[in-house]
Amino acid sequence: MGLGMGVAAGPLAFAAAKGPIVDVREQGARGDGLALDTPAFNRAIAVLQRAGGGTLRIPSGRYRCFSIRLCSNLRIAFEPGAVVVAAKPGEGGGAYDAPEPASGLYQDFGHSHWRNSLMWGEEIENLVIEGPGRIEGEGLTRDGPGALWKAQTGERPLSMAAMTEADIARLEPDHAAMAGLGNKAISLKGGRNVRLAGFTIDRGGHLAILATGTRGLVIENLVIDTERDGIDLDCVRDTLVRGCRVNSPNDDAIVIKSSYALGRSVPSENVVVRDCHVSGFDRGTLLDGTRQRTQLLAPDRDRVTGRIKLGTESNGGYRNILIEDCTFTHCRGLALETVDGGVMENVVVRRLVMDSVTTAPIFVRLGDRRRGPEGTGLGAVRGVSIREITARGIAVPLPVIVAGLAERAIEDVQLHDIDLGFAGGSAAVPRDVPELPHAYPEPSMFGVVPAWALWARHVAHLDLRNFTARTDRFDARAAFDLAGVERVTKSGVELHNARH
Fold first, then answer.
1. What is the pLDDT of residues 367-404, one digit of tens each?
2. Number of domains in the chain
């Protein structure tokens, strides 16, 4: 596939390697956990910017900060024991930088702004943030307004349909309420040659890391335990995420998107996610090592999240995506979605291990939400290969789901070397499942479907090879239910439904 070509795999070589080293304490930072150290950080970065680049050293200490403004040719080096704490709004009279005057018409507030973050940069080139330090998002908020686009059938998951306006308002305050607040730990708009490595994020706000339109991005060996999204890659190119552990019970752990945040449709392409571990443990319990599982539902009133996903924002589509050698624990399964006019093509997913799956283990969806400007068309899905997947503890009655549209089928999906263990125990249900073309895509959107292992609808070609599934309890549904699937090729299919 050529995936990973052009993605920097090692330390970036740029002016910072030869530039000066500035200790943030030299610019007045106290690191005592009490003083606001934002001015010292921004002074130190300005010194390095005037020098053409260099290294900002952060020695051991607790540095309370509002917005830190990044620059090109900058290396930020966390030393052991260094902690940057997101200050609480109003503390010391401070506030986070104001969000840009962007409309956020087709994506939510968090994806439409970058400056209202703990660390942010626009069109930054040659940036490294690395070292065994920590970011604590004490003062960041997980909340924010939804998109201004109001075709409500596709704005929110159907699992939220019973929520009152007051319930929604608590999760989605209006734009005025965001003044002075920060809702991201690290935010990048555009730019290229960026490496984030080796540190920990404890609570990242709405988005622990947001990169929009960034090229040549490497994110490796991070530990993130957060209250909403972990790593969001939006309209990125030539990007590698590897060796990261992301715990996010309330939203997605690692997610690739292609929103309209840049004012145009831009695909995410040439993206590799490798050797990562995602989970939906109670927040904070990945970091403390207890890995607790008391939380049952995410704020959308579906099961805890924590997965790897393509979507939901999908105006530009995805091309040349590789996800491999990752584990999912106590979280939703793999989701590959395009619903906003973009094309999903040349996607390879291989060697995933899932345990305690809280929704369908595999979900491939072509929908017709079209959250975009007038003229946004219907997307497409073609060239999806999913293989070497092992999933155990699938406790909900949701099988593998591959669902296209009556007016446009998913073109081809390969499911090879799949081994699934379901709880089973469901009664038979009618085969008449609603189409829901405009709905927000989630595996639970169709309710309990009439198959316990695989349910597929509107697919031109489905290729099954070495597909094994079993139940712990007898399930009265059919193992497979294929509706509007034009061609199926099968070999090595084994289905074991427990006896009554």
1. 999 999 999 999 999 999 999 999 999 999 999 999 99
2. 1
